[in-house]
C-alpha cells in the first residue's frame, strides 16, 4: 500500500487535561449512541433527526439522511476502536448498512437521494439526488472499509458502493460538479440542478473522491475549476465565502490536510483562521455572546431551521427568506456543533466554550446523545431535537483531536493518496 496520503505529518497528541479527556469521551460515547439507536434495525439507514429527550427508542419520524448514515459508519468505527459498544454488535450493523446501500437502496449512477424512507428506502418527497450527501456517505463507507479491513464482506460491499459512482456524469458537461439531479416528475423531464459546487466550501470531498476513483475518475483540472474567494474580517484573511462555519469542517473530518498544501493554500491552516474569525464574529455581535457562549452554524433555531453564516452574512433589513438562509440578525442562539466541529483547529477555545456550555446549562441542553442541536437560554428555548449530521461532525472532530483516528483510518484507503497527488498536494 502506498504511503498514507502524502504524510510525513506525524500526529502529536493534543495536550488535554484529564477533565478535557473526560468531557470529550462523554461527548463521543453519547454521540455514538445516536447512530446505534436512531437507525433502522433492518437496513442501517440513520434518521435525519430524533428527539433529544429520549429513552433510546427509535424516533417515530421516518426520514433518513444519506449523510447521517455516512457519519454513522464513521461513528461505529470510532465506537469499535474505543470499545464503547460490543464489537459483534457494531460489526453486524456495519454489514447490514453496507448490504442495503450496495444492493437495495435506489441510486442513479451510484449517487443516492438526499433523504429516504427508513423502512423502504424510497426517495423522500421530491428531494434531489445529492452529490454532497452521497460524498459524505462514501467517506463513511471508506472509513468503515479501512477500519474493518479484515472482514471480507465489508471490504467487498464498500468497494462496490464507491467504485460504481459515475463522477463524470455528475459534472454534466461542465468542469464543476452539479449539486444534484432529479428524475422526471409532474410533467418535468429528468435533469441536473442548475446550482453547482463552484466556490470553496465543503465541496473538497466531492472532488477528491472523484479524483481518486479507480473506475470513474475525473480530470485533475476539476480541482482548480472552483473559485477560492477571500474573506477579510477583523484582521483575518482567509479563503471563504458567506457560508456557515461547517464548510471549513466537513471535508476536514476525513481528509487530513495538516502539513500539506496544494497550489493555493494550506487548507488546515485556513480552517484555523476561519474558526478564530468565527469566534471574533460572534463576540462582535455583543450579548449574549461571550468567551463562554459562542458558535453558530446551520442548525435549528426557535423559528425553524437556518443556515446561519458568519462574517459577511448579516443584512440590515433581512426578509424571512434571508434569515432562513443565514443572512440576517442572529437571535442569540448558540449551536454547539459549531465549536465541536472545529476542535482540531482551535482546541483551547473550542474546548473552553463547549465545557462551559455543558457546565452552565446542564440537563437543559445535554442529554442521552450529548448536546441538543441548539439553544437560546435568554429566550427560554432549548431545541427538542438532535440532528445526525451535527452529532456526526462533533463526534468525528472530537476523535481527530484526541487521536487523529478518522484521519489516519481514512488515509489507509489507497485512493486517498491518489486523489491528493492528482490535486497537486505536497508535504510542507
Could you characterize the architecture of this molecule?
The protein is α+β, with helices and mostly antiparallel strands. Helices cover 42% and strands 12% of the residues. It is built from 15 helices and 19 strands. It has a 3-stranded antiparallel β-sheet with strand order 6-7-8. A two-stranded antiparallel sheet has the order 1-18. The chain has a two-stranded antiparallel ribbon with strand order 2-5. It starts with 17 loop residues before the first helix and ends with a strand. The mean pLDDT is 95.
Could you give the topology of this structure?
Layout: H1 18-37, E1 49-51, E2 63-65, H2 66-82, H3 87-103, E3 107-108, E4 111-112, E5 115-117, E6 129-130, H4 131-147, H5 152-163, H6 167-171, E7 180-182, E8 191-192, H7 204-212, H8 222-225, E9 230-233, E10 236-239, E11 260-261, H9 267-284, E12 298-301, E13 304-307, H10 320-324, H11 336-340, H12 347-365, E14 366-367, E15 370-371, E16 375-376, E17 381-382, E18 385-387, H13 388-403, H14 405-410, H15 414-422, E19 426-427
Antiparallel strand pairs: 1-18, 2-5, 3-4, 6-7, 7-8, 9-10, 11-19, 12-13, 14-15, 16-17
Helix pairs in contact: 1-2, 1-13, 2-3, 2-4, 2-13, 3-5, 4-5, 7-15
- Strand arrangement, major sheet: 6-7-8
Main sheet: strands, sense, barrel: 3 strands, antiparallel
- Which shape, going by the Cα principal axes? globular
Unreliable spans are none
Q: Estimate the strand proportion.
A: 5-15%
Provide a brief overview of the structure.
This protein is α+β, with helices and mostly antiparallel strands and 428 residues long.
Amino acid at each position: 500500500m502506498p504511503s498514507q496520503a502524502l504524510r510525513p505529518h506525524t500526529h502529536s497528541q493534543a495536550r488535554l487535561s484529564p477533565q478535557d479527556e473526560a468531557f470529550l469521551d462523554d461527548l463521543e460515547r453519547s454521540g455514538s449512541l445516536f447512530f446505534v439507536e436512531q437507525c433502522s434495525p433492518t437496513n442501517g439507514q440513520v434518521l435525519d433527526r430524533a428527539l433529544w429527550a429520549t429513552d433510546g427508542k427509535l424516533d417515530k419520524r421516518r426520514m433518513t439522511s444519506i449523510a447521517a448514515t455516512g457519519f454513522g459508519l464513521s461513528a461505529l468505527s470510532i465506537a469499535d476502536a474505543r470499545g464503547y459498544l460490543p464489537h459483534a454488535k457494531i460489526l453486524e450493523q456495519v454489514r447490514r448498512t453496507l448490504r442495503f446501500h450496495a444492493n437495495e437502496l435506489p441510486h442513479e449512477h451510484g449517487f443516492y437521494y438526499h433523504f429516504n424512507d427508513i423502512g423502504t428506502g424510497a426517495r423522500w418527497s421530491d428531494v434531489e439526488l445529492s452529490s454532497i450527501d452521497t460524498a459524505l456517505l462514501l467517506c463513511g463507507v471508506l472509513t468503515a472499509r479501512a477500519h474493518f479491513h479484515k472482514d471480507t464482506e465489508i471490504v467487498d460491499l464498500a468497494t462496490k458502493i464507491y467504485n460504481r459512482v459515475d463522477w463524470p456524469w455528475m459534472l454534466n458537461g461542465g468542469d464543476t460538479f452539479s449539486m444534484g439531479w432529479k428524475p422526471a416528475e409532474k410533467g418535468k423531464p429528468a435533469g441536473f440542478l442548475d446550482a453547482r459546487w463552484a466556490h470553496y466550501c465543503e465541496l473538497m470531498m466531492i472532488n477528491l473522491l472523484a479524483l481518486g476513483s479507480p473506475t470513474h475518475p475525473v480530470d485533475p483540472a476539476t480541482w482548480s475549476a472552483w473559485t477560492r474567494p477571500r474573506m477579510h474580517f477583523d484582521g483575518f484573511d482567509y479563503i471563504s465565502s458567506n457560508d456557515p462555519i461547517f464548510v471549513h469542517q466537513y471535508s476536514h473530518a476525513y481528509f487530513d490536510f495538516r502539513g500539506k498544501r496544494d497550489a493555493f493554500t494550506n487548507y488546515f491552516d485556513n480552517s484555523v483562521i476561519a474558526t478564530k474569525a468565527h469566534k471574533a464574529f460572534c463576540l462582535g455581535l455583543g450579548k449574549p455572546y461571550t468567551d463562554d457562549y459562542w458558535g453558530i452554524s446551520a442548525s435549528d433555531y426557535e423559528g425553524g431551521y437556518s443556515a446561519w453564516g458568519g462574517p459577511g452574512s448579516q443584512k440590515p433589513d433581512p426578509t424571512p427568506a434571508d434569515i432562513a438562509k443565514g443572512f440576517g440578525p442572529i437571535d442569540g442562539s448558540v449551536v454547539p456543533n459549531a465549536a465541536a466541529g472545529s476542535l482540531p483547529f482551535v482546541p483551547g477555545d473550542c474546548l473552553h466554550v463547549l465545557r462551559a456550555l455543558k457546565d452552565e446549562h446542564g440537563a437543559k441542553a445535554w442529554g442521552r446523545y450529548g448536546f441538543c442541536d441548539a439553544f437560546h437560554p435568554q429566550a427560554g428555548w432549548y431545541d427538542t431535537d438532535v440532528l445526525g449530521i451535527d452529532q456526526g461532525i462533533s463526534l468525528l472532530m472530537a476523535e481527530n483531536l484526541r487521536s487523529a483516528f478518522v484521519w489516519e483510518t481514512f488515509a489507509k484507503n489507497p485512493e486517498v493518496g491518489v486523489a491528493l497527488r492528482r490535486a497537486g498536494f505536497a508535504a510542507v
